[in-house]
Amino acid sequence: MKAFWVRTAGLGLTIGVLVSLMVGQSQGDVRTATYKGSKMCIACHKGIHKDIVNAYNMTAHSKALLEASAEGAIVADFANAPIKKDQVAWVLGIGKREQAYIDKDWKTLPAKWSVAEKKWTDLPVENAKEKCVACHTTGFNTADMSWVETGVGCESCHGPGSEHISAPAASKKTTIVTLSSLPKDRQMMVCGKCHSKGTDPSKKFPFPVLWDKDASGNLSNPKDFRPGDDLNQAFIHDKPTQEGQNQQFSELLMGKHFAAGNTCTTCHEPHKDTGQAHQLKKAEVELCLDCHKDTIKDIKTHQPTASDNAKCSDCHMPGTVRKMHTFMSKKSS
Length: 333
Ligand code: HEC
Ligand code: HEC
Ligand code: HEC
Ligand code: HEC
Ligand code: HEC
Ligand code: HEC
Ligand code: HEC
Known about the structure:
By secondary structure, the chain is α+β, with helices and mostly antiparallel strands. Helices cover 29% and strands 11% of the residues. A hairpin with an 8-residue loop joins β3 and β4 (111-114).
């Protein structure tokens, strides 16, 4: 009764909910299903999709949050560190660019490690459950700050799998979200759930949360963002800043690639091993020229002053540690 009233009150939200239900319906009900953990998925799929499972295990996603005791989890040098190694209970990031640490009380420790520079920089002490963990785990529940699996598991992108697990190929009807059949913007929002900078509508959390809203704007009953949902109902983007972390979707929204219908998986493999950095589908220059060869023959003809080993991203993705996904032509940036 209350739920009906709430839905009719907030028209924007109602449309969001209806669209997400429609997207969800054909592929099992993503709202009512529950999270079961990647181990379950892998048990069956290591037979059917051996390549996906093997490669996924090597991705940064699978190890986005590790126990300090896990083999090779900590990459920092603690010799002259502002924090003590034995304070570390949990590790954020496999150490591609940076690594941050959480203590046993789920507070972030006050320094993070820069991998390339081999040095420590200050990090504000935060309640990691409120500020960090949601995007480094699977099945995070804002209502009680719990989660089902550490790391970005299969269900972070494919949605909760309980229905699918009990009927994997129910009369040929797909019982789990297939991302390639989502509308392109919704597919990007699956990645954008974590690769975005901003806050939820309550402004308390730096990750998306779907709230019920009453007539006077009070928020209640927080729900996690799931594949097929509309990120615009659950998140307000901040303006990305150079070198900012986890904001690739916010950046992409600024340039022409998003409007032209490109998605994250136009350029990145979600879980297959390509042998390229950042799970890029191909070597970068080749990847860009696939679409831009009509106007650009090669880098040297395009920009005669470019160095011999220049890449497209050197000029079209500003930044060093992280490169911004704005893809502006130099004139417009
Ligand atoms: C009991 C075995 C089993 C389990 C457990 C299982 N799957 Fe599946 N899955 C299947 C089978 C069988 C298919 C159909 C394969 C086919 O038709 O190629 C499938 C298909 C899929 C597809 C592709 C759907 C399509 O239409 O192309 C995805 C994505 C998927 N599973 C993901 C998952 C995820 C994520 C989990 C864990 C939550 C999981 N599966 C758990 C057996 C399983
Ligand atoms: C649940 C949150 C979450 C979702 C959903 C998610 N990611 Fe990530 N992603 C992360 C985190 C956290 C890391 C960093 C892991 C680490 O470094 O240990 C990461 C790392 C990556 C990397 C590796 C970057 C590098 O430097 O090599 C790529 C590429 C990536 N994500 C792409 C995607 C794409 C594409 C999607 C959607 C299909 C997606 N992610 C969905 C949280 C997420
Ligand atoms: C909105 C989702 C989100 C939140 C909240 C979040 N992260 Fe992440 N984090 C990501 C994604 C996505 C990546 C990978 C992309 C990147 O590095 O830009 C990542 C990467 C990292 C990395 C690895 C960096 C690297 O590039 O090697 C560290 C360390 C990290 N996060 C720490 C934290 C800490 C500390 C907090 C809380 C203060 C936090 N994260 C909150 C999504 C998030
Ligand atoms: C970072 C997000 C992400 C994670 C994590 C993830 N997937 Fe996927 N998966 C995708 C996307 C996106 C596609 C669609 C591929 C495309 O559009 O090219 C996909 C496709 C698939 C498919 C369809 C087969 C095909 O034709 O590509 C299967 C099966 C699958 N994933 C299983 C899994 C399993 C099992 C896991 C965990 C071991 C997993 N995925 C983890 C994003 C993810
Ligand atoms: C047009 C191609 C393209 C698209 C679309 C694209 N990326 Fe990238 N991405 C790249 C390239 C190229 C790099 C490598 C830059 C470098 O060499 O450091 C990269 C790097 C990354 C990294 C590593 C950290 C960083 O920011 O440099 C992450 C994480 C990432 N992309 C995630 C995403 C996500 C999530 C999406 C969708 C919102 C996306 N990318 C869309 C081309 C693309
Ligand atoms: C799947 C096709 C595709 C791929 C791959 C691709 N692009 Fe694009 N790119 C486009 C389209 C479409 C546009 C928009 C053209 C327009 O609207 O004028 C565009 C526009 C651009 C622009 C011009 C933006 C402006 O402001 O005028 C730049 C720069 C650019 N891309 C760079 C890159 C780089 C660098 C890569 C590789 C990392 C890349 N593109 C990969 C399709 C692609
Ligand atoms: C040394 C820097 C540099 C490199 C490397 C570079 N570009 Fe550019 N690019 C520029 C500048 C500067 C402009 C603006 C020139 C103009 O608008 O006339 C531009 C313009 C563009 C545009 C928009 C205008 C057009 O010609 O269509 C696209 C698309 C583009 N570049 C793609 C690429 C791709 C793809 C690569 C890699 C193969 C690449 N660029 C490598 C500097 C560079």
